[in-house]
Amino acid sequence: MQRLLNGATWNADHVRDDLQTYVADRLGEADGVLILDDTGFVKKGTTSAGVQRQYSGTAGRTENCQIGVFAAYVTTRGRALVDRELYLPKSWTDDRERCRAAKVPDERGFATKPELARAMVLRALASPLPIAWVTANAAYGQEWRFRRMLEEAAVGYVLAVPKSQPVPRFGWIDYLFSQAPDEAWEQRSCGDGAKGPRVYDWAAVQLPVIEDFDGERPTRHRWALARRSISRPDQIAY
User: Fold this and answer.
1) Which domains are assigned to the chain?
2) What is the mean pLDDT of each run of 10 residues along the chain (238 residues)?
3) Which residue, among 188, 195, 178, has the nearest Cα to 233 in the 3D structure?
């Protein structure tokens, strides 16, 4: 394994393409879901590519770490990681000598995590993987370019957004649901957890057409969804 990673000559992107074909053959289903998320790898030194003090969701705090953005493919037949990108902070991409010392290609420039995720989604859509849905947390869901790319590709999505997410004609999304009457909320389970069904209050509202994007004959239907804790009603996710 060390020889493969450090000394052997091979193309990681070609292996990724072969992996996506392999996963499509063995796990592929028409309603497959692509999940995007990032994770941190805590490090002690300063020479690993992309390492710096930055927030790590894995650690739950700011740490000296690397951040990788990953794509996972999920169906009822199983799940597998199918793509990855290393996040390089500007402190790295602005220092080409440091990049060369870490064997970062000269053509690799700065890209935000959502930009890395967009590139991975486009690669996955061009692969044999059958994908009906894309899902990600608020770091990606709040990016309008990410959502527009999915709509232009005619792929369904369920994306978390922050409570301050602007909604055309309504203001912020938390204000939209603060006006919802009691009967708009329904108790439903989002699946079983360690202690049984995870039941929350749920509410949904269809969003208005965006004329500049949808045109005169809109084909897209957007909904906002809220999940409210039963024991702590002030805790609402969107």
Assistant:
1) 1-160 (3.30.420), 161-238 (no CATH)
2) 81 94 98 97 93 90 96 98 97 94 92 97 98 97 94 94 89 90 93 88 88 62 93 94
3) 178
